[in-house]
Amino acid sequence: MSVQNDTFILSKRGWLLSGVLGALFLFFTMTGLHLFQFMIGALLLAVLAIFRNPERTTAENEPDAIISSVDGVVLSVEEALVDDQKMTKVTVMNSLWDVSMLRAPYDGTVEGFKIRHGASLPLYNPLADTLNEKAVISFRSQKGDEIYIEHLSEQSCFPIGIDVEKSQKFKEGSRYGFLAKGRSIIYLPEGVRLSLSPGATLRSGESVIGYFAAA
Question: Distance of CA 69 to CAs 95, 102, 187, 203, Å?
Fold first, then answer.
């Protein structure tokens, strides 16, 4: 399945589960089992919220803009050294009730990616970084600028979903994956002009997090 073509109002990832819960809700409604009807109805509403898939566009039309790949709140902005390269590290936390679809930060190409399947520990657990499910993707812009994005899952019954291939091209805002709850770290190259600060709320495919230096 190609997530970037997953443009229905409800993500394809949630169709089966929503269908099963919907059928159970109808069954308990017709049989008059109101307690089960209420429980399944509440669970169905939660699943519909988690897998909602709204269209998003940014008001920015500048070719050097970098768009957020994830919904959530910015926890920190700090300098980091990655493979002897100075980068800016932006950490974003998304909750179960944020939109879960991950989106391409700009028109570009997947330079590489890797996925580690694992546990779903709370992020305050010191083993979370080592054992939790994690995906790392690098995107290269048409001008050659590259950013790295790391997604780490936390306490969710829904696994990380990443549907990309190396050298695959994406348009800005195209869907490339799913993260129900967790932490995302965006590594930006030196020279990027940031347009956010800790505490800012981001919307994937819509919020501008910064701008590449003009060529």
Answer: 14, 5, 12, 8
> Contact 103/123 with Cβ under 8 angstroms?
no
- Contacts of residue 86, defined as CB under 8 A and 6 or more positions apart, other chains included, come to 79, 80, 190
Q: Do 94 and 179 touch, CB atoms closer than 8 A?
A: yes
- Please name each of the domains of the chain with its CATH number: 3-50 (no CATH), 65-211 (2.70.70)
Calpha distance 58→206 (Å, rounded): 4
Contacts of 153 (CB under 8 A, 6+ apart): 120, 132, 133, 134, 159, 160, 179, 180, 181, 182
Q: Where are the alpha helices (DSSP H) in the chain?
A: 15-31, 34-50, 128-131
Per-residue pLDDT tens for 154-209? 988 788 999 899 999 999 999 999 999 999 999 999 889 999 999 999 999 999 99
What is the pTM assigned to this prediction?
A: 0.89
